[in-house]
Design a protein that fits this description.
This protein is an alpha+beta fold. 35% of the residues lie in helices and 32% in strands. It has 4 helices and 14 strands. The strands form 2 sheets. Strands 2-9-13-11-10-14 form a 6-stranded antiparallel β-barrel. Strands 6-5-3-8 form a 4-stranded antiparallel sheet, with no helix packed on it.
């Protein structure tokens, strides 16, 4: 019997090292599912939609930013020239519309007068047909002028939109995590000039085997511990993966990496900023060790 207990002890010890998740009994009668990882935040990439040269950086790494704040100014000389050119085209098109409207009004009046004279027998049908033709031509010219006006207005809107895109704004209240380019460098579409994050909403990912999923649900209480803090930080379960995956490669042992687990995210209100991205952390999910529906004979 003593030998059996010794073997069992070493089996449990081995599993503890092979898999970064453990079930522990808390002093308050609750059990906890624990796992380790690093503190993370959702990152936002600030990238241009068009290729451009960086003209000015308004912020640096570590700066706090607010929604709508100007972050980066991109070179805009060519875009401004396009706006000026299309603006001139809009003015010219507007004048063409005014002239076409005046011509159509005159042709319409002439046609109405020709109809009256024809009915009175004062002019032949040939002159009425000529007046009608001139009115049709004037109408077509007005329609063409209005179509041209619509087209140049669309071009102006597009040029102004491109000009707006040379100013990169912050979409969130947050912090600049990384500055990836320098003033004077050319940045391509989709390349992140800056990386932002809202540090108020941090989380820790742990990985749980299928057998423990029945003890976890969204909103469940949890806690996160990091070195340097005397007390764990309250957290809650905010995400449970629907599909299993192999334990991530950053787990140290090869055996643990071959196990199928489910990702669970523990979120925390980090308004005081005590948790930083990249911090090693331990997470615990708390649950009742004596469920009401558990059979007393178990």
């Amino acid at each position: 019997m003593k030998q059996h207990r010794t073997i069992r002890f070493y089996q449990i010890l081995l599993l503890t090292f092979l898999f970064p998740m453990a079930v522990a009994q808390c002093s308050d009668g609750q059990k906890s599912i624990s796992g380790s990882g690093t503190i993370e935040v959702d990152e936002i990439r600030i990238a241009p939609l068009l290729p451009a040269r960086i003209q000015e950086m308004k912020v640096g790494e570590g700066d706090h930013v607010s929604t709508g704040q100007t972050l980066v100014l991109l070179s805009s000389d060519e875009v401004r020239a396009a706006v000026s050119m299309t603006s001139a085209g809009v003015e010219a098109a507007a004048q063409n519309v005014q002239q076409a409207e005046a011509s159509y009004r005159n042709a319409s009046r002439d046609l109405q007068r020709a109809k009256e004279l024809f009915q009175a027998g004062s002019i032949p049908a040939q002159k009425l047909d000529g007046a009608r033709t001139r009115a049709d031509v004037a109408r077509a010219a007005l329609q063409a002028a209005r179509a041209q006006m619509k087209q140049v207005n669309a071009g102006l809107s597009q040029a102004r939109s491109r000009l707006d895109e040379t100013t990169l704004l912050s979409p969130i209240d947050g912090v600049v995590l990384r500055k990836n380019f320098l003033v004077g460098e050319v940045v391509m579409p989709g390349s992140a000039v800056l990386t932002l994050a809202n540090l108020n909403q941090a989380y820790l990912k742990i990985y749980v085997p299928e057998a423990e999923l029945t003890n976890i649900q969204i909103g469940q209480k949890a806690r996160i511990s990091v070195d340097g803090l005397d007390q764990p930080v309250p957290a809650h379960v905010s995400y449970i993966a629907n599909e299993a995956e192999f334990t991530p490669k950053n787990v140290q042992t090869k055996d643990a990496r071959t196990r199928l687990v489910f990702e669970v995210k523990l979120s925390v209100n980090n308004a005081n900023g005590q948790l930083k991205p990249g911090m090693p952390a331990d997470g615990e999910i708390l649950y009742d060790s004596h469920p009401a529906n558990k059979n007393s004979d178990d």
